[in-house]
Structure formats: structure tokens, C-alpha cells
Amino acid sequence: MSTPDQNAEWLSDAERAELRKPVSQRGAVFTLAFTGLVAAFMMTLLTPLVPELPSLLNVSPDDAQWAVTVTLLSAAVATPISGRLGDLYGKRRLILVLLALVVVGSVVSLFATALIPLIVGRALQGVGIGVIPLGVSVLRDILHRDRLGGAVALVSATLGVGGAVGLPVSAVISQYLDWHFLFVMSGLLAAVGLLLVWKLIPVSTLRSEGSFDFVGAAGLAVGLVGILLAVSKGGSWGWASPVTLGLLAGGVIVLIVWGVFELRTASPLIDLRVAARRTVLLTNLASVTVGFAFFASTVVLPQLLEAPTDTGVGLGQTMLVASLCLMPSGLVMWAMSPVAARLTRARGARTSLLLGLVIITVGYVLALFLMSEVWHTILIATAVGFGVGFAYASMPNLIMGAVPATETAASNGLNSVMRTLGSTVASAVLGVVLTGNLVTVGGVTTPSSSGFQTAFVISGIAALVGVAFTVFIPRHHAAYRKASIPDADDGLPQAA
């Protein structure tokens, strides 16, 4: 582990002078939470507009879907890479770079009138999701342990809050204004976040030794893209098609070769020996199930709400009303973050994760019997958000308690990828379930009641699998002892 000090060779004179200034911890937490909201908002920015994109861009529905898919792919690939770069060259620096790319992506998308420029812009916006695990790692470096849990819970919750709150905002803009205004708003938000980070986040002094693993980054990117493309597009390409099977098999093979390479390289992109530690491995596996269960609510509930009432299944609501019904899910995640932090301090992060997954399971059990009224969907979404709030608050703490201080960004980035993988699988699996169980009445076709119930059962089972993983997470592991950059009155930065 490198030992940061005031004379560290990577610090310029201006950065050393900046470190002498007292850190506003409240300002830092607010800034990182704000940037997390902005990044999460990018993931759902175009969701309400998906049905209109084919006509707006004069392309087929399958082609238009790439404007959403590419954001998911770029986020999954960029997050672990940016985490490692943050550990090597400074987390604050990488957050600034990612936010700058979001601004550039917003500008490109703002002037896009065809699909290809829009895909480029959305890919650049997708990389911004990496600011959330980087932000959590910054908190690990600058906060005292007594303040860390609540701050981590708050920033982690932004992953769900930004999407849930952003959906109705996007729906309003899409419905009443030119759709390009979405990118005016996203660019302004990212620019404000960039300015706040520049002013309020201290220079990163705790950095890892070694060099960046370009081969490992390329291998991980190719493997992840292959698997995620196969899972996300398999429904439209055909699950048995040569393209889908080739991408899936190729992605798995590449990741196996990548894993062997990473174990043999001196400075790996991701230290798989650390990732294989029991706490880290089981937490990441549980993260897949949490990502699945949370994304399931954003896939299934809007379809239930917006489906016409003619078939006796749907609730006949508009896109805007459906978005507003999901909004409490994000708000409760935000509201429960301090509660989750207190539970983590009192009982441990494992208990918080376990409770969250149990609550999610209960929410989907209720969904089997409550799907005939609008308030039913609000209750289910809120219950799922309640559980996800506890789960998201606990996972970074479990990860950071079991990895070296110089690997927090890379490890949190990997954890974020696992959640993304769960979300991608949920989108694919539940899409197959709902399209495979349809009912037609009077020329109107919607998913059937049994289709929705099957989707809820699968989502509940996913949460139960997460419970099983969590039960086997060790109750005790190496504790977080000292912030990498202590309070201003504690003197100079010290190693954790």
C-alpha cells in the first residue's frame, strides 16, 4: 500500500496548498450525493421517450432501443475501469473526468437528429454512473468512521433515487417540450456537479501503486459487452440465434481468459484474489439479486399501470402517472438511508443487507395478491424501495471493510457492475415472461394476469437467493479503523 503524505510525488504545489484548507464534510457529502443523483438520472433519461424514438429518429423500434442499451453497456464497462483509474491517479480527478464526459455527451445528444450521434452521446452519458462508486470511495478517504455509514448510505441510495425521481421529470419534458430539452437539463446538472466537485472535494492522496492494466481493461470490456449484449438483445435477436449464442459464449470465454491473465499480472485491473474473499464474493453475488429485484419493479409495475383496462388486467394510467407512482420508491430509499446507517452501526452491514432482501421478498409476495388498484402498485414499489435502501446502504460498507484502502474504488466499481448485471438479466428474463403470457380482448393485447404474477414470483425468488448469499457472509471481518484523510484538526493526511 502506498503511504500518502504532503510530499507525495503525484501532488502538484497547488494541490498541496489545497490540502491545507479545511474540508467541509457536509459540503463533500452533499456534492457526492448530488453527482450520484445526476449520474443515476442519465440511466433513465430516455426511458419515457422510448415508444416515440422510432418516429422521432425514423428508425425501427429495435434500432431505437440502442439509445437505451448503449448507456447500460458503457456504464458497465466504464465503472470498474474508472474505479481502478481512481485508485491509481486520484478519485476526485476521475470524477471530474466522468462528469466532463457527461457534459460532452449531453451536448452531442442535444444536437443529434439521427440515431448514431444519439448513441454516441448516450454512451458518453452512461460512463457517468462511475461517479457513484468513486464517490463512496472518496467518503471512505475523507470522513471519520462515525460519519461514514450515514454518508455512504446516502450516496449509495442515489443509484435508485436518481432514476425514480428522474422518470417523472423526463416524462413531463418529453410530453410537453421538445425532447432535446432533456439534454439541456442533463448537461446543466452535470456541469453544476463538476463545479461542486472542483470546489468542495479534496485532492485524493491515498493512491495505489502500480500501473494501469490496459490489456485487462480491454479484456473486461470485450467480455462484459458480449454477455450484456446477448442478455439485453436476446429477446429481439432470438435466444437460440447464432449471434446471441456466439456473443454469450464468446463473452464467457473472454472473461475466463481475462481472469487467468489478471491472476498473473503484477498490477491487475481488478485483484481477483481480493474479489474472491468470502465477504466480497458473497456481497457481490447478493448485489446481482438486489439489482435484479429492484429493476424488476421498474420493468413490471409501469407495464401494469399503463396497460389498458379493456383486458381486465391493466390499470389504464398515463406514462406520467405511472412515473409518479414509482417515485415514492426512490424517495423512501433516500429517507431510509440514515436509518440503514444506524442499523449498520448497531448490528453490522450484513444485518442491514439481510433485512433489505427480506423486505424486498415480502414486497413481491404482497404483489401476488395486490395488483388491481393503483395504490397497490405504489405500495409494492415503496416496499421494494424500502428494502433496496437498506441493501444499497450496506453493500459498500461490506466491500470496504474487506478490501485494502487503496482498492476501494475498483472494488466498489466491481460491485456496481454486479448490480448492473442483475438489472440486465431482470430486463431480459421478465421481458420474455411478459411477452410470453399475453391476453387479447377487443383487439387490445397486454401481458396477462398470470404473466405479471409469474414476474413477481421470479423477482421474489431472486431476493430469496440474495438472502441465502447474505446468510453466509461472515459476521466479522477486518474493521475500518481510520479515515485516509482525517478531520482538519487531526493534522496531515495519514494512511488508513
Overview of this structure, please?
This protein has 496 residues and is mainly α. It has 2 domains: 22-212 and 267-490, Growth Hormone, Chain: A (Up-down Bundle); 213-266. Helix content is 73%, strand content 2%. It has helices at 13-19, 25-44, 53-57, 61-64, 66-89, 91-110, 115-126, 131-142, 145-176, 181-200, 214-237, 242-264, 272-275, 278-306, 319-347, 349-367, 374-400, 408-435, 449-471; strands at 438-441, 444-447. A two-stranded antiparallel sheet has the order 1-2. It starts with 12 loop residues before the first helix and ends in a 25-residue tail after the last helix.
Give a summary of the structure in a few sentences:
The protein is mainly alpha-helical and 496 residues long. It has helices at 13-19, 25-44, 53-57, 61-64, 66-89, 91-110, 115-126, 131-142, 145-176, 181-200, 214-237, 242-264, 272-275, 278-306, 319-347, 349-367, 374-400, 408-435, 449-471, and strands spanning 438-441, 444-447. Strand 1 and strand 2 form a beta hairpin.
